[in-house]
Every structure is written in C-alpha cells, then in structure tokens.
C-alpha cells in the first residue's frame, strides 16, 4: 500500500457490523460479559476501546511498528514511555527537545530517580560523551525546535544497538508521512498528535508505536495501569485528521517553499533555518532519511523591535504556540516557547530575540506571501 492509501485504508477500515465506512465512536466505559471473565475482547475502556483500538492499529501501520497506543496528550505519551524505565536509569536527550519533555525529565522524572543528559544529538561524539554505565535510552527529536537541527537516525540507531540502549524518537515535526524512524532503527516512535496528525487545532492527543512485542506488552501494561488514555471521541477526530495527512503535508510543503523563496530575497531577513535549504547543516541527512522537509521554519529579523513590528502587522499568521494545523501560526521562541531558558543560554543556542518561528499552513500561498510582504515592509 502506498502512503496516502494507507492513511485511509490502514488499520481497521470502517465497521464490519454495519458497513459504515467511518469507525463508529464507541462512547462506552464497560462491556457485557457472557459469563464471568468471558468477553468479546473488551472489558473496560481504560484497558481497551474499539474506537481507540482502530486508531492504535492505524498509527501502528503508518509508522511500520508492531503495536500502537493512543494517549490523552503528547506529554502523556512521553511520560508513559518513560515509565518503561526504572529508578536509577539514565537517558540521553536531544538538547533542544520540546520544552514539556525537558520539564518532566528535569522536574518530575529526576525525583523518581530517572536522570537525563541533554546534548546536541546531531553530533554523535556528544552522545558518546554523555554515555554512562546506567544509560538505558536515547531520546531524539529531529528536526528540532526552533533551529531545525537534524539528527542522523541510522547513525544513532547503530550506536544504540551497540550499547544496548532503547532508541526513542519524537516524530511530531516531520510526521509519519515524511519520516518513519522505525525504518531507520528506532525502537519507539511517538507523536504529539495534537499537531499535524490531528491537523485542525481541535484535539489534544499523543500516539506511540513500538517495534517489539515485549515492549508492546510492557507499554500496554503501563497504559492500562496509569490510565492516560485517549477518549473515543478524540480518537475518532484523530482518525478523521489522519485521512488527509498526505494531501495536507504536500500542500504545507509547497507553501513553505514559496514562503522561503520570498524570505530569501528580503533584505530584513538575516538568516533562515529550514532543513530543505542546501546550506542548512542537516540538509544531507534530512534528504537521506525523510521524503519531505516539512513545513516548520525559523528566520531571524535581527532584533526584538523588528520581530514585534512584523507580528503586529500579520493577518493570516496567527500569533500562537503550537504548530502543524491548517492555519499558519507564528511565534517568537525567545518570548514564548523558550522564555524559560536564560537569555545568555538562548543566545548561545542561536535563539535570538529577533528569531521568528513559523508553522506554514495550507491557505493560498499568494495570500501568505502578500501578508508577509506587507508585515515586513
Ligand atoms: C507539542 C509537542 C509535544 C507535547 O505534546 P502535547 O500534545 O502538547 O502534550 C511533544 N513533542 C513535540 C515535538 C511537540 O511539538
């Protein structure tokens, strides 16, 4: 099955009982048993729900793993995945991972005895330098936010296998339409499905796919024990979103190319960060491991004043955190998503006060460019 076909026909297509082509929303908590302990596969919806199951089968197929899981948010997915580890374990993370991932590792998981080190995983020698006797996993985000740094998944996977480490990849930015980390050796891939998979800024959800039956058993045990499940209605909304992921991603990318062509020639724009640009540090690797470069980009206008002026004038780029939806979103990482990082550290990383991050939507590209043209003056 090709990709766009799989987004529609993967998992469990429709409903066998009635012929409905869309999976019904099983808004139910418990299931009648024929005799004590004898049931049709469902006993209680924390353990399993048919609508959630259909979504879990779909994401499993799309990512090419052995089992899928749906959680109440991306962070619930990440937290539950971390529960596969034990007190005393250590994890190596990409240094500019999603802020919420950084927060739970450094303020919550550390209290439970799981420690972390954050390094630039696009540089394998930094991973080597962070390895400890108790290191059990590597957690990669590629490309990263907001500078779009790219990590070589195959290189990290080889290293992880040599050292018996679990390799976990947050695939939210590139989406399974453009990148399938399991094919490059990852053991676990996870998503904030709130972003591109949902795609319409109307649902908060998280998905995990594992590539090993035992990991699947273990994660289901955790999902059922901790209970951070996705409800049936949100599961259905997510399946509805996933059906159009392919055409959305293609349109997102066409628009991104057009926006970049415009920004490249604009005198105010000092630097553009996008893995699809040949002079971007991650271009070759992104080209090797992704079938598309995505629709997230950042650019530097040089100062906070210029950034503020731009933001006050844009009309179709909505000032908001989050990403990956049909509407274009714009943000200033230094003031928003990365405000908690001390300014000095931010500047070291390249997150200047004039850096602007854009999630390019699927509006008409001519309108997006006209909007930017007007706002940049
Ligand atoms: C948003 C996001 C998360 C967290 O997901 P929620 O659905 O907001 O809990 C994790 N990783 C990345 C890369 C994200 O963008």
TrEMBL record:
Origin superkingdom: Bacteria
Database matches in Pfam families: Cys_Met_Meta_PP
GO molecular function, one term: homocysteine desulfhydrase activity
UniProt cross-references to CDD domains, sorted A to Z: CGS_like
EC number annotated for this UniProt entry: 4.4.1.1, 4.4.1.2
Signal sequence range: none
SUPFAM superfamilies recorded: PLP-dependent transferases
Keywords, comma-separated and alphabetical: Lyase, Pyridoxal phosphate
Keyword Magnesium recorded: no
Required cofactor(s): pyridoxal 5'-phosphate
Broad EC category: lyase
Similarity comment text for this entry: Belongs to the trans-sulfuration enzymes family.
Protein name: Cystathionine gamma-lyase/homocysteine desulfhydrase
